[in-house]
DNA sequence: ACCCTTTTTGTCCGTATTTACAGAAACGTA
DNA sequence: TACGTTTCTGTAAATACGGACAAAAAGGGT
């Protein structure tokens, strides 16, 4: 193979869904983990599927990987901000003391729910724990 | 919030699937992008869904992100090896010259197909291109 | 002996992401 | 005025990831 590989054919993942993807120029699979990068975004979506949640609630419901490794506020803040920028969640701040901020799913975020559901279904067999040797 | 957040409740993503997850200790969503890290693994799974593929075929069918940025052999090799280590794909080398190596999905890899399908379905509306501003 | 193909590795480097740690803002309450 | 709570930011260090580049293995063909 050459030093770098290039491709001429357009994307055609037909067989997976049977859907016409001819109008799509960017592979959804690659876009997916570009949009959902960072370690906690998928989990945050899961949490918010249960309804609006406060910053602290999300943080507390978040486990770090497998163990009880906690998430630091710095990271949670960044993840939430990125997700807001991408239109997956909305942020609503209440003018009270102590501060109260609630995050919830947008339409765009809800569009990912079927994917989340499949991931949970996939995990219900425990394969992910096997693979990671938990 | 404290400097670090910890959590006492077990995972409960019940509402998403209606499945009993009490026996699961690690959040599938977090495990998912720990197992499918790297930029190309999801895409590689899609390609291999079409049947066994050679190293060069996979490389050629892989676009880098959105543009025609090519993947370097070094990276493809690493991705494939990691996926093999995690039991998602198998590697079969034929004793011929020039070398011929074929990769294919394992049971474990096939278990992810429903997730892939949902991701493609999600992308069929073009949301991912909107979000990334392609 | 040298070149060709295909697959793969070694090494190095720059960037991106994660993490730790400290601290700020906002304001009611003691 | 000091304190507490909640949300969030600044800074710097640590680690992971992506990519460039060269090169090796394994023979067949010329």
UniProtKB/TrEMBL annotation, chains A, B:
Q: Which UniProt keywords apply?
A: DNA-binding, Transcription, Transcription regulation
The record, for InterPro entries, names: HTH_HxlR, WH-like_DNA-bd_sf, WH_DNA-bd_sf
* Keyword Cell membrane attributed: no
Residues folding into a coiled coil are none
- Enumerate the spans annotated as HTH hxlR-type domain: 27-131
One of its Pfam families is HxlR
Protein name, per record: HTH hxlR-type domain-containing protein
Q: Which organism is it from?
A: Devosia nitrariae
């Amino acid at each position: 193979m050459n030093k770098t590989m290039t491709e001429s054919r357009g994307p055609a993942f037909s067989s997976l869904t049977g859907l016409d993807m001819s109008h799509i120029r960017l592979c959804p699979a690659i876009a997916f983990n570009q949009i959902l990068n960072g370690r906690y975004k998928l989990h945050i979506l899961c949490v918010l599927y249960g309804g609006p949640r406060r910053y602290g609630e999300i943080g507390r419901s978040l486990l770090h990987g497998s163990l009880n490794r906690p998430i630091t506020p710095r990271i949670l803040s960044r993840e939430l901000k990125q997700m807001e920028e991408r239109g997956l969640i909305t942020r609503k701040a209440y003018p009270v003391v102590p501060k109260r901020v609630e995050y919830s799913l947008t339409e765009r975020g809800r569009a990912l729910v079927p994917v989340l559901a499949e991931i949970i279904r996939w995990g219900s067999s425990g394969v992910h724990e096997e693979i990671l040797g938990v």
